[in-house]
Amino acid sequence: xxxxxRLILALMVGLLLGLSxxxxxxxxxxxxxxxxxxxxxxxxxxxxxxxDAQLLAEVMQRVRDNYVDPVDDHQLMQNAIRGMVxxxxxxxxxLTPDEFEEMKVSTSGAxxxxxxxxxxxxxxxxVVGRMPGSPAERAxxxxxDRIGRIDGVAxxxxxxxxxxxxxxxxxxxxxxLAVRREGSAALLEFQVERxxxxxxxxxxxxxxxxxxxxxITSFTDTTAAELEQAVGRLTRTHKLDGFVIDxxxxxxxxxxxxxxxxxxxxDRGTIVxxxxxxxxxxxxxxxxxxxxxxxxxxxxxxxGGSASASEILAAALHDNHRAxxxxxxxxxxxxxxxxxxxxxxxxxxxxxxxxxxPAGISINGVGIVPDTVLAGxxxxxxxxxxxxxxxxxxxxxxxSVALQALTTHVGQVAARVSSAxx
Length: 422
Description:
By secondary structure, the chain is α+β, with helices and mostly antiparallel strands. It folds into two domains: 110-198, Pdz3 Domain (Roll); 202-408, Alpha-Beta Complex (2-enoyl-CoA Hydratase, Chain A, domain 1). It has helices at residues 3-30, 50-66, 73-86, 97-108, 135-139, 160-167, 223-237, 255-265, 309-319, 392-395, 397-408; strands spanning 93-95, 110-113, 116-121, 124-130, 146-150, 153-154, 174-180, 188-193, 195-198, 202-208, 211-216, 242-246, 270-276, 283-286, 297-302, 323-327, 335-341, 347-356, 372-373. The strands form four sheets. Strands 3, 4, 5, 6, 7 and 8 form a six-stranded antiparallel β-sheet that branches.
């Protein structure tokens, strides 16, 4: 195709994109509750951005003609869409089909695979965790095993996502793993049948006969049910006067899950409110009567890795005088993203609301300052599944501080100091 013809084609693409943006803007205005459904008048806010469309077409043409490697028009447009969305804020993004599927796994807490947690390692990926009852555990794969080949293909430790994707697949299908194990000179071969795997986001144990410990690592569709079952197991055999709820390094997840968990511990009060441009993006959620702990005292552990949904839970318990926070300032993500499916398996993840804790102070970019701020070098949360004879409180100094706060305070631990830095 001659350069002039290609430029005309590029211009047509740009003009069509501009027309689409204009029409989308007008449709949004028609549905806006502020104008009663009437179409918005044509003004500078909805006028067709011809100059911008022309600029896009010109840039696209220059890239196609001059970039060091040949580029595909489809990929250029995909990149333009991604850049448009990701330029809005740090949390909005365009999702490819693979990315959308991965997000579904992270929010649903379930997938078909072999049930291992891996990290990059020399010559492959190293198994750092196996889910109880998983195909990997049944096949005899152990923590510390280094997976070097999957179905005969060498594993690139720098591309962890690709290795994880290859280990997932249709339920009932098989996968061949070549494994190096410390102490074994021979290369071990495993054939593992993929199965439905449920990711667990809640772990629980007793710190003392009357104190329970609940660690929430993320918020998925099953988190509230998992937490309720964990509290039920602990209280079935012991009368518990208090709980340590550990939200350290919990990056968040499903907002509804955080709301459900907060409601489990609250009898009354606001859990969270939100403000946005659409009706669905504006809400206030109140707690319903009923506390699954029967009013047990609560201490919540947080740190800089506690974000989003975990901050919603921490603030809801804190601002309603239900719990004391111990640890370090939280991350400070005060916005809500909505997943909008698109054609061909793609999706849009876009910020639709800003949320506010019960105290009404936005934590976005600020975080929540705990009642007790811990100093010194922070250590990661200690492993719970270990053969070490030392207790969790002995192995984890921050859990020890939380336990001490519960055991030395008489009555409810809930003194409210501040929901956020000012």
